[in-house]
């Protein structure tokens, strides 16, 4: 190590701006590798774990603290409405209320093929939380990200990567394909489960129960960028059939500081509460606003949405 230091002793110390592009490439590589492991795309919850590993190994120095540390305890938040009482509520009761709420929401205008889905989210993992901005073309032909956004700067040129999600031969699907499939789903649980099993987009994992394999398919679809409300209602009712789900008896605060309902499912389909996935729902609209991983009562990774929008060009935010 001494000889290496002497070899490049004149090299300038890397600052956040110089490290950001490399860090962004590592994060995007982790995202791409994980995406190709599932048939419909990948859950961002998995990205948080990959992101945490990349951060810890390569570029911890570039992270700007704008949130809580991973490993924080799950804390309650004040209820926005006296009528929202989560104590003792079952998963089925919560998800039926959620389904009825989203069913009443107006239809979503489907984006054009050449439009982009912009997302900004806070990701928990590693030493500190960090905000990440991404763009994905609705037809799945390109993705983009802002490397300077990772160091708290805006206005830089976004980096665009060509993709072929609708015909590239891998296991991914475009936002357009996801939207079209969900729009064909019925609004009842049995009908949705029948459709998912017939489609069999994600091969059943050997040694796992049918309920767990159903949960995997439902989870990936619920994590799509653009979804029709009636399709979401059907997915919620199908999710209510998955065993061992529990509703946290109080609102929680996510990594972005928002109050949310936490719906918890033990990881791996078991009935153990030590390791679990949590879906975070807005307490008014019942839309999913984030996901996170819990171990022994502590948050070890996850994401919380700060913004979502359909835009005409990569780099635009509204």
Concise account of the structure shown:
The protein is an alpha+beta fold and 318 residues long. It is 31% helix and 22% strand.
What would you say this structure looks like, in words?
This protein is of the alpha+beta class. It is built from eight helices and eleven strands. Strands 1, 2, 3, 4, 5, 6, 7, 8, 9, 10 and 11 form an eleven-stranded antiparallel beta sheet that branches. The longest helix has 20 residues, at 16-35.
Residue-averaged pLDDT: 77
Strand residue content: 15-25%
Per DSSP E runs of 2 or more residues, the count of β-strands stands at 11
**Percent range for helical residues?**
25-40%
Instruction: Report the sheet with the most strands, covering strand number, pairing sense and barrel closure.
Output: 11 strands, antiparallel
Q: Briefly note the structural class of the backbone.
A: alpha+beta
- How far the N terminus sits from the C terminus, by CA atoms, comes to 48 Å
Low-confidence stretches: 13-79
Shape: globular
Core attributes:
eleven-stranded antiparallel β-sheet; 8 helices; alpha+beta; 318 residues
SSE layout and pairing:
Elements: H1 2-7, H2 16-35, H3 44-59, E1 76-77, H4 91-103, E2 116-124, E3 130-137, E4 142-145, E5 159-162, H5 175-183, H6 189-199, H7 210-222, H8 229-239, E6 246-247, E7 251-253, E8 259-266, E9 275-281, E10 288-295, E11 298-311
Antiparallel strand pairs: 1-7, 2-3, 2-11, 3-4, 4-5, 6-8, 7-8, 8-9, 9-10, 10-11
């Amino acid at each position: 190590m001494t000889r290496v230091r002497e070899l490049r002793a004149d090299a300038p110390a890397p600052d956040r701006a110089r490290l950001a592009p490399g860090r962004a490439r590592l994060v995007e590589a982790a995202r791409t590798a994980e995406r190709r492991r599932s048939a419909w795309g990948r859950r961002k919850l998995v990205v948080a774990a990959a992101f945490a590993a990349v951060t810890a190994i390569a570029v911890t120095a570039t992270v700007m603290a704008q949130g809580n540390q991973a490993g924080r305890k799950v804390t309650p938040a004040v209820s926005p409405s006296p009528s929202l009482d989560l104590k003792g509520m079952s998963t089925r009761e919560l998800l039926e209320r959620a389904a009825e709420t989203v069913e009443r929401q107006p239809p979503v205008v489907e984006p054009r093929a050449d439009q982009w889905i912009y997302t900004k989210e806070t990701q928990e993992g590693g030493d500190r939380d960090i905000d990440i901005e991404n763009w994905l073309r609705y037809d799945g032909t390109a993705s983009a990200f802002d490397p300077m956004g990772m160091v708290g700067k805006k206005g830089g040129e976004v980096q665009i990567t060509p993709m072929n999600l609708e015909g590239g031969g891998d296991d991914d699907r475009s936002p357009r394909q996801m939207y079209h499939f969900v729009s064909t789903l019925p609004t009842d649980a049995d009908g949705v489960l029948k459709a998912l099993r017939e489609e069999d987009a994600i091969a059943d994992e050997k040694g796992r129960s049918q309920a767990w394999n159903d949960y995997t398919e439902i989870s990936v679809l619920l994590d799509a960028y653009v979804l029709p409300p009636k399709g979401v209602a059907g997915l919620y009712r199908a999710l209510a059939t998955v065993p061992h789900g529990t509703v946290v008896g109080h609102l929680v605060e996510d990594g972005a500081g928002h109050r949310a309902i936490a719906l918890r499912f033990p990881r791996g389909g078991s009935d153990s509460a030590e390791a679990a996935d949590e879906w975070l729902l807005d307490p008014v609209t019942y839309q999913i606003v984030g996901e996170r991983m819990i171990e022994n009562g502590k948050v070890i990774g996850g994401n919380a949405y700060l913004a979502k929008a359909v835009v005409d060009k990569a780099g635009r935010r509204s």
